[in-house]
Amino acid sequence: MTFTEVSSELEADFNEWYNREHLMERVNIDGFRRARRYEAVKAEIKYLSTYEALDSDNIASPDYVKVLKTPSDWSKSIMPQFTKWHRMPCRVEADYTCGIGAALTLFRFYLDPTKKQELLDWINKGALEEMNKLSSIVGSCLVSVDIEADKRLANALGQTIDRNQNTEWAILVEGSNSNVTTETSSGYLSEKLKSLILSGTELIVEKYQFLYSNQRIC
Length: 218
Prior knowledge:
This protein has helices at residues 11-27, 62-69, 73-78, 116-124, 127-131, 147-157, 178-194, and strands at 2-5, 32-42, 47-53, 84-87, 90-96, 103-110, 137-145, 168-175, 204-215. The chain has a nine-stranded antiparallel sheet with strand order 4-1-3-2-9-6-8-7-5. The chain has a single domain, classed as Alpha-Beta Plaits. The protein is 33% helix and 32% strand. A hairpin with a 4-residue loop joins strand 2 (32-42) and strand 3 (47-53). It is an alpha+beta fold.
């Protein structure tokens, strides 16, 4: 997942670039299959993109790095002008998605490492499956940042990361209506997740609407 934002003056060109070039580049990298874009209804950063690959090894693979290091003129014009940006290269821990929802509610949190098994047990005993039966919700999944994939990306981009960083987790909840999906999933998830997060951190709940998807057919 990546979160991006640009100035209002650049936004129209940014969206054209993202939809017409950037997502196409990514889904055509070996191992990548689908990319989706969302616009914030209520979130810290306006645009969210999700990218689905067969394996975390596809993140910062030689093919991926080649694309990063040979950007188009359009990419070179747009990318340095991001005003906000955040990256979450994730591993899927549990997947109960079905199709693509019109709305996405994103729960982001730093899990207390001592409570990882409690979270996984709760999920594996049917927490997301039961939530998916509620009004407006059509699917959900649990993901966690893959620290090794994040390191590979940082190295490819010439960035440094905190080697002692805590792992960020997220639950993505898809639905047919953004307000109902957020209200319903928050009522179901928030209390439990708040009991599992790292001391001194907060549960972040963000609301997005679906914009566009690009998918590799073969």
